[in-house]
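Supplementary Note 3. Input sequence used for the single-chain structure prediction.
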Amino acid sequence: RSEVLRQAEIGTAKAVVVATDTDDATVLTVLTARELAPEAWIVAAVRETENIPLVRQSGADQVVVSSATAGRLLGLSTSAPQLVTVIEDLLTASTGIAASPCASASS
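The predicted structure, written as discrete structure tokens, is reproduced below.
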């Protein structure tokens, strides 16, 4: 894994997204990414909520629980389908509404 990350030039990355098939692979990948890119912002996806602390301890700055997020969207679709449409648009690249960060005005 570390060789693949080196080939991707992770050492120069400002941000790293880790999305693997299993939570244990996520932990190992985050550990390796943190070692190779100590200043990068690391976001990792996990399947189980109970693994959030372990992935954070491994070096992730942000952890997203994919199963919980999908479950919330499914639940929202029954009571607020329009809201789910907006969220899907925000999450789908090249379609619908595009979200991007912007600098705030200083006073």
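The mean pLDDT is 84. The beta strands are 15-18, 41-46, 62-65.
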